[in-house]
Specification:
- The protein folds into two domains: 322 residues, no CATH class; 243 residues, Methane Monooxygenase Hydroxylase, Chain G, domain 1, CATH 1.20.58.
- The protein is mostly helical.
- It is 79% helix and 0% strand.
Length: 588
Amino acid sequence: MGIFEILTLVGGLALFLYGMDVMGDGLKKLAGGKLESILAKLTSNRFKGFLLGFGVTAIIQSSSATTVMLVGFVNSGIMKLGQTISIIMGANVGTTVTAWLLSTSAIDGGGIWWLDLLKPSSFTPVLAVIGVAITMFSKSDKKKNIAFILLGFAVLMFGMESMSDAVSGLKSEPWFKEMLVMFENPVMGIVVGTVLTAIIQSSSASVGILQALSMTGAINFATAIPIIMGQNIGTTITPILSAISGNRDSKRVAFACLFIKILGIVIVAPVFYILHAFVNFAFMEAVIDPFWVAFVHTAFNILTTVVLIPFCGFIEKCAIKAVRGKKDQKEEEKNDAFSALDERFITIPSFAIDTSRHLVCDMALLAQRSFESAAELIENYDKNVAERISKEETEVDHYEDKISSYLVKVSGQDLSIKDSREITSLLHCVGDIERISDHAVNICEAAEEIKEKGIEFSPEAKRDIEVISAATREVLLLAVHALLENNLEIAKKVEPLEQVIDKLKRKIKNNHIKRLKEGNCTMEYGFVLSDLLTNFERVADHCSNIAVCLLEIAQGALDTHEYLSHVKEDGENEFFELYDQYKAKYIL
């Protein structure tokens, strides 16, 4: 095997791994975070868990990725350890789908044209051309993701063929034959398979390399079987590395994954080799090809699952006993909302964005509660309520810091246009919600001043404050509900009411000036009134910004001023009808 064959082998492996990465990334983006959401909402039914684990892994083509997701779910408190066991087993079987795809490279049509068409070398060039064409001429995220899947598969299969061509001459090499005989020792074969897969961090890739080598015709079943067993252990290195920075339960998930693999080999391997010692399986000396490599890989994982799935509870207990220790800080704060912002999810942008959106909604509800409480303090000041509002404002600030930092990290990923726009929208919403909380504190301080100075507004001024307060509460209620439900119809009602609140502010100020001229009010009262009006009006402005963000995302625009101008000028009669309704409802 010369230097050029070695370079071809290395280049083929690089293309193979890159193709797997591109295809998997395209599949994840096409799923749009839905697969992760399905796993996160899973019940404790072990058979349902197995099927979902199988399905998700078969789609994203990586059991390691699925297991890392599970580590993240458990670390953030979304799932419990017991729920993950059956999913891991399903993922172990699901990852074998890749080996079946790769086995098509060994198809020999024998001159029959329709069989030759099934060979990847016949159709992958067509897939590559289609993928390139879609990438160049399509602007649709969905179509581009499909193109990346096609391109990834084409590159993967081209890399597979390159590796096969590079190692084709090994069959006649004496050193290669001697090495394969050494690997017939089950322990040695398992160790080699484990180390190879741990280095590559992908059982699908290491099985693909074995399939490429099997096309030399020099590898038999006796060599391949222990290597395949070892490959199943090696793939656990990824979740183990991922769990190092996690809490105790996430480490238990990684251990459960390792325990399932090792227990499978401890049970299956001795039984198989004891039977072989007595029966002497004739196929052990037969040459193995890519099809049979895929078969053995699948059979081992299915057999392991059948044996172990009744013992999910036992595996969970073993994981708990293996990873002991006092509860760490994260576990003591299991209700910590920010634990859902797990760093592991950053590589799954759609899911990370969806998780962030839930926290933005919680933040909005907290700010709404603070504002409503603050508005009530104007008439009935309560020091305890005021202190609670101050604490809630600090908590809202914490939300802003955590969510914004997390979304900025997510924005560094390769995002679709939709995801990029949604991150921008959420960042704007977070800022607006934080400012609403600040205005609640300002109103609270104004209410405290009213209490301390014994300020008593005139009946007309009280009426004015009640009207604009009620209107501001409603606009905030509309904005928050539109955000919670992602309801565009509710969002459309915000801007007309915000315009009414602007008009109310101007009219109340004019009323105050009129009373001032008549000697029915003082400048000191006017300053307090002005503070209240400014905070009410600015809360309405921030509500308008939140609603506009939701509508902009739906329409694929990101220019607030342009959008508002369009709504007011070309909104047909809907905007003005709502405006008239609110103007009649909140009349002074």
